[in-house]
From TrEMBL:
<keyword id="KW-0472">Membrane</keyword>
<keyword id="KW-1133">Transmembrane helix</keyword>
<protein>
    <submittedName>
        <fullName>Cytochrome oxidase maturation protein, cbb3-type</fullName>
    </submittedName>
</protein>
<dbReference type="Pfam" id="PF03597">
    <property type="entry name" value="FixS"/>
</dbReference>
<dbReference type="InterPro" id="IPR004714">
    <property type="entry name" value="Cyt_oxidase_maturation_cbb3"/>
</dbReference>
<keyword id="KW-0812">Transmembrane</keyword>
<feature type="transmembrane region" description="Helical">
    <location>
        <begin position="6"/>
        <end position="26"/>
    </location>
</feature>
<feature type="region of interest" description="Disordered">
    <location>
        <begin position="51"/>
        <end position="74"/>
    </location>
</feature>
Amino acid sequence: MDILYLMILCSVSLAAVFLVVFIVYARKGQFEDDESPAVRILFDNEEIKETEDLSSNDSEKKKGDSNKFEEKSE
């Protein structure tokens, strides 16, 4: 029966910790923007392509494992 009291105490304290963390992050504005992630997939990738083009013009690409696929596809 003592273990039951211990488990209840642990679960209530864990729930209190999660509640405090939730309140702190809610006040910081973590949960303010809940619409844009849902519609982000509907946008075109033109912005991403433009930033990749700008970064390739600014500096030369290093020859590494991540660029092997790009070399073959071009």
